[in-house]
Design a protein that fits this description.
By secondary structure, the protein is an alpha+beta fold. Helices cover about 40% and strands about 10% of the residues. The chain has five helices and two strands; from the N terminus they run αβααβαα.
Length: about 130
């Protein structure tokens, strides 16, 4: 998503970067030309949260690029996702943060057709 007034001047290009990296590795190194290839999709810290959000879309991205692989695995190192109320009332709950980041990034339609989107609908679709 391009930077705009609606996004406070920020550009959200994580998924575009993922598509570009997979496409480059496919074209340059032949990744996905064999059904024996395995993709380990990972991120650390805040990148773990980004990897978690994008993991459901990886099969569709691979398919659109023409990549055929044996298996996809996600490794989320410290994705800061523990959906429990904080002990300290001054800390904003992670679920609240995630819901508002989701709204701010205007990605409300992205879960449609994903496994996550099939499970979480309506007000829980974030």
């Amino acid at each position: 998503m391009a930077a705009s007034e609606e996004t406070g001047g920020y550009a959200f290009m994580g998924q575009e970067i993922i598509i570009s990296v997979i496409d480059t590795v496919h074209k340059k190194y032949g990744f996905g030309n064999s059904n024996d290839d395995i993709l380990i999709f990972s991120g650390c810290s805040a990148g773990g949260r980004g990897a978690m959000v994008n993991l459901d879309y990886i099969p569709g991205i691979l398919s659109n690029i023409g990549v055929n692989i044996k298996h996809i695995m996600g490794v989320l190192d410290s994705p800061l996702w523990i959906n429990i109320p904080p002990e300290n009332d001054t800390i904003i709950p992670v679920a609240y943060q995630t819901e508002h980041v989701y709204t701010f990034a205007n990605v409300s339609g992205r879960v449609i057709g994903s496994k996550c989107g099939e499970v979480y609908t309506g007000n829980d679709s974030w």
